[in-house]
Amino acid sequence: MTALVTPFCKLDDVGNIARGKSKHRPRNDTILYGGKYPFIQTGDVKHASFYITNYTQTYNEKGLAQSKLWNPGTLCITIAANIADTAILKIPACFPDSIIGFTPYKGKADVRFIKYCLDTYKLQIQSISQGTTQDNLSLEKLRSIYFKIPPLPIQKKSPQSSLPTTTLSKTITAAFPYWRKWLKKSTASGLCACAFQDMRR
Known about the structure:
The structure is a single chain. This protein has helices at 2-5, 11-14, 42-47, 61-65, 111-120, 122-127, 139-143, 152-155, 165-191; strands at 8-10, 15-19, 33-39, 51-52, 57-59, 75-80, 82-89, 99-104, 145-148, 196-198. With 201 residues, it is of the alpha+beta class. A hairpin with a 1-residue loop joins strand 6 (75-80) and strand 7 (82-89). The protein is globular and about 50 Å long. The two termini are 28 Å apart.
């Protein structure tokens, strides 16, 4: 019943959301690279099919010291260059502040469903990121967006993350109609006119 009374919520209501870190300048300083810590960039997120397992650069200890190591299961969301591309970390990795990391609160959200929400409304998210000189999706803008997020049991209608990648892509595709059906049904109840709202003042 609670989900019907309050159909919209922000990402930080259901998980932790924060920007990646790369404090050192210049960013491409060679003293940071060539170690054992994967360093994910916006292009890696864009080219990932669903999970991020491949990367082109690594940090060493100096690189890690000025960054942050994110856990597997973190949803990466690009906010510069490529806006609102998403993929889920399958490995521990660092990423810069051009990527936002989302980790769901236990019992609140399934990271795969949150990815589905962001992918579904990618064009709308990109539209509020348009600027006069350069498109940019800030952390504040992303936090200002209200999504219709169903109860966790409905989110869990997605496939198990332990499935092989080829099987996973097929079963995720099969799960999408169920999620769409829930969104359509709850929207038709008269609670709202759409499943996405930009509530910025």
